[in-house]
Specification:
six-stranded mixed beta sheet; 6 helices; four-stranded parallel beta sheet
C-alpha cells in the first residue's frame, strides 16, 4: 500500500469536503441576510463568494443576467437603474468591472434630468478586469475589452478594444491567430483548460487549428491552487507517472 498516496488523497478530500459543506451553509445564511436588507443585497451581489449566488442576487436587484454569463467578484453593476443592464449568455465580466446605465453627473449640479440608457454586454464577450462600461454602450458578440479600459461607444461584433477611451486594437480573429502563433514559439507558457464559461461555438472556430496541428501545450492540472486541494492533484500526478 502506498501510504503517502492515500494520505495525500485523504488530506485533499477532507479539505474539499469541509469547504463544500461550509460553502453551502455560508451561501444560505448570506442569501437570507441579503433578502432582509437591500443595502446588503447590493454589497453581496458584488462580493458573495459564490458566483451563481452573485448572479441570483443581481437578478433580484433587476439586472438582466443570462444563466450562462460569468460575473466575477467585485463587479459594480448599475445600482440606480439595474434593469437597464443586459448581460447575455457566455458574457464574462472580470474582477472589478464597472457597468453604468445612467448618467446623473449634470443632474447633481444643475436642474437638468438624469439620463438612462440600456447597456448591453453581448454573447460570448469578455470585459477585462477594472474596465468601465459607460451608459448606453453595446458590446457586440465575441468581443474582448482589455483590462483597465473605459468603453464610451459601441463595440462591433468580433473585435477587441482597449485604452481610455477604448479604441479598436484588432479583430477577434487576429487575436486568435496571434495567440496560436505564440503557442508554437512558447508552448510551455500555455495550459489546455476546458472552460464552461465560453460559448460552445463561434464564427471563427475554423481558424483554431492548433489541435489539428498537434501543438503540445501543458495540462491545466499541473497548476496548483496553494491550498490542501493540491494534495489530490499531487496524488493523481504521482499515479500517472507510476504507470
Amino acid at each position: 500500500m502506498d501510504r503517502e498516496y492515500y494520505s495525500m488523497l485523504a488530506k485533499g478530500y477532507w479539505f474539499l469536503g469541509r469547504n463544500i459543506l461550509a460553502g453551502k451553509i455560508t451561501n444560505r445564511v448570506l442569501e437570507l441576510v441579503a433578502l432582509m436588507d437591500y443595502r446588503l443585497l447590493m454589497l453581496l451581489s458584488m462580493w458573495h463568494p459564490d458566483q451563481e449566488t452573485r448572479k441570483r442576487l443581481l437578478r433580484k436587484r433587476g439586472v438582466q443576467v443570462a444563466d450562462k454569463a460569468w460575473v466575477d467578484l467585485g463587479c459594480w453593476i448599475e445600482m440606480t437603474t439595474p434593469q437597464s443592464v443586459i448581460i447575455e449568455d457566455y458574457a464574462k465580466l472580470a474582477y472589478g468591472v464597472i457597468v453604468f446605465a445612467h448618467d446623473a453627473a449634470v443632474n447633481s449640479v444643475v436642474d437638468l434630468p438624469m439620463r438612462v440608457k440600456t447597456t448591453r454586454i453581448g454573447y460570448n464577450s469578455a470585459v477585462g478586469a477594472r474596465s468601465i462600461v459607460m451608459p448606453g454602450v453595446t458590446i457586440g458578440e465575441h468581443c474582448g475589452v482589455v483590462p483597465g479600459s473605459v468603453v464610451t461607444k459601441d463595440i462591433p461584433d468580433r473585435t477587441v478594444w482597449g485604452g481610455d477611451p477604448a479604441r479598436q486594437l484588432f479583430t477577434s480573429e487576429e487575436l486568435g491567430l496571434a495567440w496560436q502563433a505564440d503557442m508554437k514559439v512558447h508552448p510551455d507558457l500555455y495550459y489546455d483548460h476546458p472552460n464552461e464559461s465560453r460559448g460552445p461555438s463561434t464564427t471563427f472556430d475554423h481558424i483554431l487549428t492548433w489541435r489539428e496541428e498537434g501543438i503540445k501545450v501543458r495540462d491545466c492540472r499541473e497548476l496548483r491552487t496553494g491550498t490542501p486541494f493540491d494534495y489530490i492533484l499531487e496524488a493523481k500526478a504521482r499515479k500517472e507517472k507510476s504507470r
